């Protein structure tokens, strides 16, 4: 798997993920096949024990993150990671990284504007049958069964929404959260979703609402999802 910057033909300010994030969130993305910027020295230490596929996606994530931080007007520092795998963003920055085959993105913003960001990308294909029971809440199973025919694999879109939410949730609260602790409700017309916990009190760690909203988009066979938490 290799990546190329701006292979989508879009200017970075107008990249696909930007269309489902607020304007003051800076996004950089890579599509397709090509070389990427090398890791910084301290990042290379983290990558030493990774296999080559993992090194490639890790490097792609660091490359887009560095470019995004630069576009925020900051000098990028090595982007290390915490024990839970979350990127340790430099002071003043919140952000999130995602990669899947043929796509990689980083979204960053000032921590004075946002508490956290979560982004995710998944190939638009159905979840394996045996995985669905571990991911989908009964509400979601019923919604998918009654949804009109669509190019979107809704089970994977819901999975992606939960992954994006988890990245935000984990980096802000430090807590774990299981796929079936919450359920996603989808507004197809608005490309929007909300995620609610069955335990209402949990979301209060992140927001004063009982649910959190996000956006989704399908582009070039990739499902993209985003969530942001304001102060
Ligand atoms: C961590 C996790 C969300 C990564 O998602 P993924 O779809 O497998 O992979 P992606 O490429 O989209 O994202 C990987 C990136 O997420 C980031 N990440 C990893 N752990 C993270 C965490 N705890 N918090 C925030 N970001 C994290 C990293 O930047 C990582 O890339 P890197 O290691 O190259 O820096 C996923 O593997 C996981 O553990 N999920 C289980 C928990 C969950 O999602 N629960 C649902 C709650 S409703």
Description:
The chain is an alpha+beta fold. The protein has two domains: 4-114, 4'-phosphopantetheinyl transferase domain (Ribosomal Protein L22, Chain A, Alpha-Beta Complex); 120-230, 4'-phosphopantetheinyl transferase domain (Ribosomal Protein L22, Chain A, Alpha-Beta Complex). The protein contains six helices and eleven strands. The strands form three sheets. Strands 7-11-10-9-8 form a five-stranded antiparallel sheet. Strands 1-2-6-5 form a four-stranded antiparallel sheet, covered by helices on one side. A two-stranded antiparallel sheet has the order 3-4. A hairpin with a 2-residue loop joins strand 5 and strand 6. Coenzyme A binds next to helix 2, strand 5 and helix 5.
Q: Which molecules are bound besides the chains? A: coenzyme A
The number of helices is 6
Q: How would you classify the helix and strand content by structural class?
A: alpha+beta
What is the helix fraction of residues, given as a range?
25-40%
Q: What is the fold named in CATH at topology level of the largest domain?
A: Ribosomal Protein L22, Chain A
Give the H and E element order.
EEHHEEEEEHHHEEHEE
| Rounded mean pLDDT score | 90
